[in-house]
């Protein structure tokens, strides 16, 4: 898979390193000469250019990319890069970093964003996830599909403890995608039985979150 990352700061370089380790091709773009740190990620391709300019994206071969990640520290730049990637080059997957949570509402399909990642929101969500049992925690928003990645740790005495996944009438527009049990990651099958303490990850429509939480939690 070919991935272009706009923004070669600490965030961009870190993402690039992870993707390269997983066998992907990565191009890092930044307009600041001091950000071009080839020795930091030597396996990546590098381009000194402004990712908000069509000529730069042409030079980057954006039309050949499977994924574009807008990872600069400027929300305006990330929105422009996302919009150009989607509308001018038809990139299948666009992921954008949200620096200011107040701008999160802008990072949607209208701006070409498939997945918006707000670092402050994600950090607070991970704190909630670590201390919350029986409460639904929103981890990530998928803009194009109008869906969220949400987590709930099944509390003791939850009505669904002991139920087979295939027997549960999950809310509409909701999918159980992963069960984390201790140090095991389980791809849920109809015969898998839910247990107290299971960390359940769902992709769900926002309007179904309240219904999902009510189904999984202990009645108060």
From TrEMBL:
It holds the Pfam family TrkA_N. Residues 1-117 form the RCK N-terminal domain. Keywords: Ion transport, NAD, Potassium, Potassium transport, Transport. Residues 137-218 form the RCK C-terminal domain. Gene3D superfamilies: NAD(P)-binding Rossmann-like Domain (3.40.50.720), Regulator of K+ conductance, C-terminal domain (3.30.70.1450). It comes from the Bacteria. The keyword NAD applies. InterPro entries: K_uptake_TrkA (IPR006036), NAD(P)-bd_dom_sf (IPR036291), RCK_C (IPR006037), RCK_C_sf (IPR036721), RCK_N (IPR003148), Trk_Ktr_HKT_K-transport (IPR050721). This is Trk system potassium uptake protein TrkA.
């Amino acid at each position: 898979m070919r991935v272009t990352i706009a923004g070669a700061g600490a965030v961009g370089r870190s993402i690039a390193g992870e993707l390269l380790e997983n066998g992907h091709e990565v191009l890092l773009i930044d307009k600041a000469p001091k950000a071009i740190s080839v020795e930091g990620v030597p396996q990546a391709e590098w381009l000194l250019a402004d990712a908000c300019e069509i000529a730069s994206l042409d030079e980057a071969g954006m039309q050949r990319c499977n994924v574009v990640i807008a990872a600069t520290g400027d929300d305006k730049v990330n929105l422009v890069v996302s919009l150009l990637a989607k509308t001018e080059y038809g990139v299948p997957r666009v992921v954008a970093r949200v620096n200011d949570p107040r701008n999160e509402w802008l990072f949607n399909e209208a701006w070409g964003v498939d997945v918006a990642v707000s670092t402050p929101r994600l950090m607070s969500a991970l704190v909630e996830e670590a201390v919350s049992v029986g409460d639904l925690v929103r981890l990530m928003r998928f803009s194009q599909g109008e869906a969220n990645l949400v987590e709930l740790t099944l509390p003791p005495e939850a009505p669904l403890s002991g139920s087979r996944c295939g027997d549960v009438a999950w809310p509409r527009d909701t999918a159980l995608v992963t069960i984390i049990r201790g140090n095991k990651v389980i791809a849920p099958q109809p015969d898998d039985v839910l247990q107290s303490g299971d960390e359940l990850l769902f992709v769900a429509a926002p309007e179904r979150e309240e219904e999902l939480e009510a189904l999984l939690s202990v009645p108060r």
